From TrEMBL:
InterPro entries, A to Z: AdipoR/HlyIII-related (IPR004254)
Signal peptide span: none
Record GO cellular component, one term: membrane
Protein's name according to its UniProt entry: Heptahelical transmembrane protein 4
Compartment annotation: Membrane
Keywords: Membrane, Metal-binding, Transmembrane, Transmembrane helix, Zinc
Topological type in the membrane: Multi-pass membrane protein
Transmembrane segments: 107-128, 232-254, 266-284, 328-347, 359-378, 398-418
Region span, Disordered: 1-55
Matches recorded under Pfam families: HlyIII (PF03006)
Highest classification ranks of the organism: Eukaryota, Viridiplantae, Streptophyta, Embryophyta, Tracheophyta
Binding positions for Zn(2+) per the UniProt entry: H250, H396, H400
Biological processes annotated in GO: response to hormone; response to sucrose
Low complexity compositional bias, start-end: 32-44
């Protein structure tokens, strides 16, 4: 466990504590942070050398600290002044998912998003129709309709049998008075005696009305196999990979410089996976009847994603001054989706409702992603009020929300592709 160590007034290496002060109090001692508008803390990234029985011990505290006390590898956004974790032990770093700091909402926003897409994956596998054809997406398919009629007919047959059997348990006069008939034939007015040595079995012929079911209605429901689902599942896997790696990165990045290097690379790879797999439903289902175009679009975006992930491995790529470059790289990858979408509308915009519906969701997705990138690159609103949005409302948190919303919009587009291609095949 991390123990809080009292400051011994060792000069400018330390900042003031996060403990609240009275009105107008500036804080005593040296090393007071110049950013009075936001709380700062004693630096835990600086080794504290104490003497215990003549031996020096290096102790590290698990306190939240201010921006100026961070090492260079943790400095990313100077407009967020406080509530930083720095070089905490791994156990405390992981358990900090349940504590309050400036990464708490970054962790949970994408962790909840990951669970959402996990549920969507299960839903897609178990609930979305897989029988193909237009009937698979209607509220009452023809197969289900005729199947229900057959069940009702069978139930009626069973009830008739039971009613006729009950007749023979009635007194002869009551059976004669009832005048029951079956298929226009009068039931005998005298029931046979119920003796142990004599059992009469009555065979009742009832026509199965379901045999007259139109063959074209049944054929329509089974004509052709459903279109393959793997492009949509690939997208769901890419979305989950992106959200999970982002959540893990924001949680344990502060542990060490080495851990920051590894998790940031994973984070960028997750973003590339989300963008690449987003193209798979679009390219596969749109150009289902044009395999050459299908391979062209899918191969191009896969190559771009691999190049972006490779560039992300360069350590200098993480430098704060390259923030606009990082945003531009992944934005250009996503924006390249305009080409196949426009191509789709040219080919099918006037003939396929599914093409138009999916394009509408993709436009919503692009707007959400684009707005998130603008917020991320501009670092608003914390730029307008430094220190005021350290815990809640800063740009990275808003960016995360836009990413989850945009990814969900693209999932809805994927569902529209399935509706379209299950009905209109090549």
């Amino acid at each position: 466990m991390c123990k809080k160590l009292k400051k011994k007034g060792q000069g400018p290496l330390h900042q003031t504590s996060l403990q609240p002060r009275g009105a107008g109090e500036l804080g005593g001692g040296e090393g007071t942070s110049p950013m009075a508008a936001s709380p700062t803390t004693t630096s835990s990234c600086m080794p504290w050398n104490g003497v215990d029985d003549g031996e020096k011990e290096k102790k590290r505290k698990c306190d939240l600290i201010g921006y100026e006390a961070l090492p260079d590898w943790l400095k990313d956004n100077e407009f967020i002044h406080g509530y930083y974790r720095c070089e905490w032990p791994m156990k405390e770093t992981i358990l900090s998912i349940f504590s309050i700091h400036n990464e708490t909402l970054n962790v949970w926003s994408h962790l909840i998003g990951f669970l959402l897409f996990l549920c969507l994956t299960i839903f897609t596998a178990m609930v979305i129709p897989r029988d193909g054809g237009r009937s698979g997406w209607s509220s009452r398919s023809s197969a289900a309709y005729w199947g229900d009629l057959k069940e009702m007919a069978n139930m009626t047959v069973a009830l008739r049998h039971e009613a006729l059997a009950a007749c023979f348990l009635l007194p002869p006069s009551a059976a004669a008075a009832a005048g029951l008939s079956e298929d226009g034939q009068q039931i005998p007015t005298s029931c046979p005696p119920n003796t142990s040595s004599s059992h009469v079995h009555h065979s009742i012929q009832i026509q199965d009305t379901t045999t007259s079911m139109p063959t074209d209605a049944l054929t329509a429901t089974t004509a052709g196999d459903p279109v393959t689902r793997w492009p949509l599942f690939a997208y769901l896997a890419g979305a989950m990979a992106c959200l999970l790696t982002s959540s893990v990165c924001h949680l344990i990045l502060c542990h060490s410089e080495r851990m920051a290097y590894i998790t940031l690379r994973l984070d960028y790879a997750g973003i590339a996976a989300l963008i690449v797999t987003s193209f798979y439903p679009l390219s596969y289902y749109t150009f289902l009847c044009a395999p050459s175009l299908q391979r062209l679009y899918m191969g191009t975006i896969t190559a771009l994603g691999a190049a972006a992930a490779t560039v992300s491995l360069v350590p200098a790529f993480q430098a704060p001054e390259l923030r606009p470059l990082r945003a531009a790289l992944f934005s250009c990858m996503g924006a390249s989706g305009v080409v196949p979408i426009a191509h789709k509308l040219v080919l099918y915009g006037g003939t396929a409702k599914g093409a138009v519906a999916s394009a509408a969701y993709e436009a919503l997705m692009g707007a959400l992603y684009g707005l998130g990138v603008v917020v991320y690159a501009a670092r608003v609103p914390e730029r307008w009020a430094p220190g005021r949005f350290d815990l809640v409302g800063h740009s990275h948190q808003l960016f995360h929300l836009f990413v989850v919303a945009g990814a969900y919009a693209h999932y809805l587009a994927g569902v529209e592709y399935l509706k379209w291609r299950d009905v209109d095949k090549c």
